[in-house]
Target: Fucose 4-O-acetylase-like acetyltransferase
Amino acid sequence: MKTDPRTVAPPRLWFADNLRIALTSLVVLHHVAVMYSGLPLWYYTEPPTSAAAGAVLAIFLVVNQAWFMGAFFLLSGYFTPGSYDRKGPAAFLRDRLVRLGIPLIVFYFVLSPLLHAGSPPEPYLDAIGSGPLWFVLALLVFDACYTAFRLATARRPRPRERAARPPALPMVIAFVAALALGTYALRIVLPAGTWVPIVDFPTSSYLPQYAAFFAAGAVAYRRGWFHTVTPRAGWAGFGLAAGASVVFLPLALAGGLEAWMGRGTLSSLFFALWDSSFAVGAVLALLAFFRSRLDGQGPLGRYLSAHAFTVYVIHAFVVTAAGLALGAVAWPTPAKFALVAAVTLPACFALAGPIRRLPGVRRVL
Model:
């Protein structure tokens, strides 16, 4: 009997695993930077000790935000079709609800209030929330939408097998343009920094990027794009990101520190063109780099890969605890950031192992 290739697990993409490890590490460092930026966006914050330190942290955060969560959604979208093909709709959704839904519910109703416990403690209803696990909530929504799409198109004839080839340049440019316009339009209603109740996304103004990258990942799986990313494509992506930073970013900032955030301003259009171009270019460059230079894993790499999601779930506690522990130390912001980053990142991965060995936890994390 002939085996349906869509039900067979594809070969492991070590470079994609390694990229996911790097992105998870960047999430930890991003939240350490938020903690010392003075922005009221973390469970514990400190104002920067100098304007220069605050500016460097702000630039770090803005550049990260422009692309790194989009990269997470691209990787998630890439591995979604194969998982759906192997398990079918019911088992696929059940697996997603277990692997994503349980950590989200526990964090939302139990761990988030613990992180908000201060002096005085916040009321319980004010303390609940998804926190960093807004990403998990978004993935659940996207997985449900993907399942609905597959069920709605189940009777369509299966498309012919295509030879794997990278996306053509006009397709990449059209994707960037559509993404920029969609982002610009949303930011008329939801400027950067707008918090949406219930949904609890800290970056709702990036929703077009997250949805588009997830969809692009699913298409990339079908067309074999990850297998065809070349160093030349990586350099093209680097050029796109650098060119957008030289052309669009100064135009966005020329209107003032507030104008780029949205509300239909010309500066917000240029900023949407910058972050859309930068995100696509940076992800292309990193995919090419990791595929050509980091397409393998030893024992350490396999450990880090297996525990990356656990690190994502637990890192808020480790980062916050480290910040509180150093709260009374009168060090300059750069020194505190460097120390906390150097301690919390390995600590998160070290703690992830024992946590996953707890009874029943490995099934979820």
The CA atoms of residues 6 and 158 lie 11 Å apart.
